[in-house]
């Protein structure tokens, strides 16, 4: 019946695709960014080198335009301007990350860098004055370089302990300022890309072996930080904490059982690799079985997937207060087994991905504009892990021209926000936050300054890094004000 009413409403308004409903009162709008992508000041006021500073300085050829995050959008100096823009857009929250190496320059907890602490204190003060809630990520890919060099980074379990110490320091320092915490951003990118395919820093290529070791350690790191928060800070902080997991939506490429199974397998390897240990306990069974079998067939003495002990499984299980989701795109999936001798994460999954010819896409190869994919993903999360509050912590659209009349970006936001409304009203998903990536152009990792994702442009050739609103900034501001996507909103 509800579906029928919504259909009639949509039909009556003459806009076939856009949901006309008003967002619920508790729904929050915000924008996200990350320290290494906007702050700059890479070695200022005592900040230490990160694995990304290191990669960009030593291997500029790996970055599309050969540039690093040294200055980026210069938010280290211009944060007041950024906060003023967030306020002007009427946003509820601002997702940012703390740079580990600004607080602890070497990564070790031996010396807290006061100017670094002060920078974030100032930023939180500014946000408070603007009435904007900070959503704070402790780790957005920027491992302090000494921990990579001396310990091997996330391949060493002691880095999980060092992360936990750093987290404890942050919880203590910013206990009065932050109530919404994120431990780690996108562990799959950190591990499967950083230690698997060697694309992202620290650019280690050992897919199907070291990336799983990283996955295990990063899950332990997250769980340790969660328990520290739970045991020592929750009572005074009265906030919430979770890990951000990202995934593409994998849609079966046909209705054959093999393709349906392949799509579910892709979801389990992509989201479930991290979601299952946190929500259900241990790796997903399909991951355990596939990696064990493929390891055996390839002659490995044991599975390439490291085990968790019973104690570790219980320790990681339940370490969430909400689901934090980053999502950008959708792929179609067919089953396709890779030869067993080809070790590698994607070979373990055994799929072929493709896009529908009518899908439009942004830059970067993997961006497809498929709003219904988000809706399907939200429904999958509820079906797989239960009725848990979901916060979208990233969703956005890149282009390579930096066009100011960014109608494609507007269409993207409109479509994905409409899918959020469908999920809320049609599917009963407890979705409460939408966080757009992003408010200003930033340093897009391997894309350098060649991908534009901001609702405001940044002039990267201007030493003042001047910001200017794109058309999408105006559209988003109006949408937040109206709290819906069409002219005649329906309560
Ligand atoms: C990351 C961001 C990144 C965005 C767009 C996400 O995977 O969390 O840091 O900029 O994608 O590429």
TrEMBL record:
Signal peptide: 1-16
Keyword terms, alphabetized: Glycoprotein, Glycosidase, Hydrolase, Signal
InterPro entries according to UniProt: GH, Glyco_hydro_1
GO MF annotations in UniProt: beta-glucosidase activity
Stretches assigned to coiled coil: none
Keyword Lipid metabolism appears in the UniProt entry: no
PANTHER family cross-referenced by the UniProt entry: GLYCOSYL HYDROLASE, LP05116P
Similarity remark: Belongs to the glycosyl hydrolase 1 family.
Quaternary structure and partners: Homodimer.
Protein name as annotated: Beta-glucosidase
